[in-house]
Recover the amino acids of this structure.
């Protein structure tokens, strides 16, 4: 590629492809941020920034400035508000995921997955994490539905 952004045949195709990939990535990120999980992630980032602000004002508080308690109170109120919003959205997500999981984990599916777990566990003697990766579900989830269906 030359200094002017052209590839070896002078068309600039490499540059256009690179720009298009960046635009596609931006669109994907924007789409993700509109999902509930993306919104929770965005709120977590906002909380992290506010925590940094809080730390700044705590350190500044040692200088004796008179406006520090007010600034600190403002940041702590913002943290509380954003945390409450994040927790409410997170609870809503958890409920939705549980509903979807309940629909998926019927009694028959649970029996089948239990047999699959036992087959892999007995055949390989792997640690739990590797078995979970192999079968595609968590032991805790399996235990939950075994108890639910009284198997």
């Amino acid at each position: 590629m030359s200094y002017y952004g052209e590839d070896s045949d002078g068309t600039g195709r490499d540059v256009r492809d690179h720009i298009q990939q960046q635009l596609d990535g931006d669109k994907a990120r924007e789409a993700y941020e509109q999902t509930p999980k993306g919104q929770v992630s965005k709120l977590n980032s906002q909380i992290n920034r506010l925590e940094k602000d809080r730390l700044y004002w705590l350190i500044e508080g040692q200088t004796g400035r008179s406006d520090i308690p007010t600034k600190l109170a403002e940041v702590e109120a913002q943290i509380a508000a954003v945390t409450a919003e994040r927790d409410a959205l997170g609870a809503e997500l958890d409920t939705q995921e549980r509903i979807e999981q309940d629909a998926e984990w019927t009694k028959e599916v649970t029996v089948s997955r239990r047999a699959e777990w036992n087959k892999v566990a007995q055949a390989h003697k792997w640690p739990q994490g590797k078995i979970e990766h192999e079968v595609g579900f968590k032991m805790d989830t399996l235990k939950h539905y075994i108890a639910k269906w009284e198997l």
In short: The chain has a mean pLDDT of 88. The first helix runs from residue 13 to 34. Residues 1-34 form one domain.
